[in-house]
Amino acid sequence: MPSPRARRAGSLRQPVILLYVAVAALYGLAAWLRRPGAPAPAPSLPAAIIALALVVHAVTVVHAVFTPDGIDLSFPQALSLVAWLTVLVAVVSGLFAKLPAAGNVILPVAAACALVPLAGSAPHRFAYAGETMAAAHIAVALVGYALFTVAALQALLLAGLEKRLHSGITRPESDGALPLLTLERFLFRLVAAGFVLLTLTIASGLVFSEEVFGKPVTFTHKSVFSVLGWATFAILLFGRWRYGWRGRRALYWIIAGTALLILGYLGSKFVSQVVLGR
Question: How far is it, in rounded angstroms, from Cα 176 to Cα 102?
């Protein structure tokens, strides 16, 4: 009898494999059209390509995650899903317009993540996905992760822009971006929204663990990293409110908090499912 990994790989040999390639190609094309120094295309062309990529990507996510046997949240599917949500958040929030360079990072990364499920993996079914509270818990958590991912990528770009500005190399406006202070305020709105969702995720997991997962709360690597990430963002937002933290100090806190969350969710999945093969 073929193994789950083999069955999964076999299912991806169907024509749907072309959709995965199409998603990566569309993200790549949009990034290429938006590259620095490229001739300016029609303003609506990159936006239309990204919108089409999101639709096709959504089809691949639904096909891979929502299977007849239940919801598959194995590492490749989770990575692709988070990538889709990240692009969606960037589009809906207007980040690509406020900070055009963000597209040069987010879109190629999303293209690569969209192809990861083609490598195949053993399914990792979520046993309680049929429960309303469990589904809400997953949805809130994933949107929160996407918000923090976008915030971290923006923080990295802002750190680079600030360094260039202090070196007198260029002004952010010359790159088509808004002023740094405006971008920073937008960044903290993303962080605040993500923090609210992360708080709801942790609270629902702690208070309603038996209703959501059918068992009392247990402290795993994922929960420890999640709490550490929450504490990092709590300190950052308090420092911003009380002491006016900004600039590189705030940006590094955002990157560190997001890294903890990624280690807790995707990192734990990668180690347990890919490295250890559980």
Answer: 11
Can you tell me the distance from the alpha carbon of 89 to that of 112, in angstroms, rounded to the nearest whole number? 18
Give the pair of three-digit tokens for residue 137: 């818990």
Predicted pLDDT at 66? 80
Please give the sequence-ordered ranges of beta strands (E in DSSP) within the chain, or none if there are none: 66-67, 70-71
> Considering the entire predicted model, what is its pTM?
0.82
Q: Using an 8 Å Cβ cutoff, are 256 and 231 in contact?
A: no
CA 182 to CA 178: how far, in whole Å?
6
Provide the pairing of β-strand 70-71 with 66-67. antiparallel
Q: What is the DSSP string of 5-60?
A: HHHHHHHTTSTTHHHHHHHHHHHHHHHHHTSTTPPP--THHHHHHHHHHHHHHHHH
Q: Across the strands, what pairs with 270?
A: none
What is the SS3 assignment for 177?
coil
Terminal alpha carbon distance of the chain: 19
Residue range 154-189, pLDDT digits in tens: 999 888 887 777 666 555 554 556 778 888 999 999
